[in-house]
Amino acid sequence: MNKNSTPVIRFAVFEDAEAIAINHIRSWQEMYKEFIPESILQNLSVQERTQQWQDLIKQGVKILVLEIDHKMVGFASICEFRDLKPDVLKGEISAIYLHPDYWRQGLGTQLCTIALSELSKLGFKSVYLWVLSDNSQARRFYESLGFVVTDYTRIEEFYEGGALLEEILYKKTLE
């Protein structure tokens, strides 16, 4: 990103699905290389992920995309909180990823801040997200934005036969 570039954050359209999939996979390959077997990470399918994101966009899932110089470099998916006791006042950031080439430039903070703002506009009073317990980089990031650890954890299987990983639930109260 050059110093004259201005990040643009907008809602995704159907045609964004492939770029979302590419960013999703590239981010996973870098962020999760210590947690998920390399054989799984290297075989993630852009075609399969594109289809998943197309389906979500068609279903009306709200996905924010972040562009630099007309190139998508990150995204965040927001929705009503899907776990524990259903509550219309609880929102969720169900995914937020940046291409690794754009990490540590403040873009993740901008994207997360806009996601929180959009969730607030939708009437949510608090926001939740799941983070791998061992992902200290992501945990520090969310904590710097005011998210706090809750008492909830879960074990998730990432790809059949791949890895069983513990996730921890974070919460942030919206103003």
Automatic annotation (TrEMBL):
UniProt KW Methyltransferase keyword: no
Enzyme nomenclature, EC number: 2.3.1.183
SUPFAM superfamilies: Acyl-CoA N-acyltransferases (Nat)
Signal peptide positions on this chain: none
Keyword S-adenosyl-L-methionine applies: no
GO MF annotations in UniProt: phosphinothricin N-acetyltransferase activity
This protein's UniProt keywords: Acyltransferase, Transferase
Origin: domain of life: Bacteria
Domain N-acetyltransferase stretches: 7-175
PANTHER family: GNAT-FAMILY ACETYLTRANSFERASE, SPERMIDINE N(1)-ACETYLTRANSFERASE
Name of the protein: GNAT family acetyltransferase
Source organism: Legionella donaldsonii
